[in-house]
């Protein structure tokens, strides 16, 4: 017969939490690392896809043939397009304003500020549900 001490010892061993085997913990860590790397890869691909959309839209605009003076004189029309209900027109206007601000030598910053476009662009960032416009404005880096 076993002593009361032996019985208590066996009971305590049964009550302890079962330990994971070395192999199962290693498999769990490996699966976690694979999942993290998949998530990172998907995030970088999503960023590339969004930027590819922006570059495609920029190439489709027909304002590339206009001179700088014509583009500057077109700023009030662009500001009016920002108020339009059609999202494609708003997107075109945002892209054109961003293109004007990214001109390397003497961008027409003051003309755009005085036209009232900046508060409207900020409102797009705050309130619009159009993710393409938000992506363009968030990645805008003059």
TrEMBL record:
Keywords, in A-Z order: Protein transport, Transport
UniProt-listed InterPro entries: ARM-like, ARM-type_fold, Importin-a_IBB
SUPFAM superfamilies, sorted: ARM repeat
Biased composition annotated in UniProt, kind: Basic residues: 9-19
Ranges where the IBB domain occurs: 1-58
Signal peptide range in chain numbering: none
Region of interest (Disordered), residue spans: 1-26
Family affiliation: Belongs to the importin alpha family.
PANTHER family found in the cross-reference section: IMPORTIN ALPHA
Name the UniProt record assigns to this protein: Importin subunit alpha-1b
Source organism of the structure: Anaeramoeba flamelloides
């Amino acid at each position: 017969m076993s002593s009361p001490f032996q019985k208590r010892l066996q009971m305590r061993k049964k009550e302890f939490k079962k330990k994971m085997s070395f192999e199962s913990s290693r498999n769990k860590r490996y699966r976690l690392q694979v999942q993290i790397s998949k998530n990172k890869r998907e995030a970088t691909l999503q960023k590339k896809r969004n930027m590819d959309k922006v570059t495609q839209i920029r190439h489709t605009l027909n304002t590339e043939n206009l001179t700088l003076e014509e583009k500057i004189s077109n700023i009030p029309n662009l500001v009016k397009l920002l108020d339009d209900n059609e999202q494609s027109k708003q997107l075109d206007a945002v892209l054109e304003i961003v293109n004007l601000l990214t001109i390397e030598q003497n961008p027409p910053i003051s003309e755009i500020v005085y036209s009232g476009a900046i508060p409207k662009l900020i409102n797009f960032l705050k309130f619009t549900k159009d993710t393409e416009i938000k992506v363009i404005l968030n990645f805008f880096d003059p």
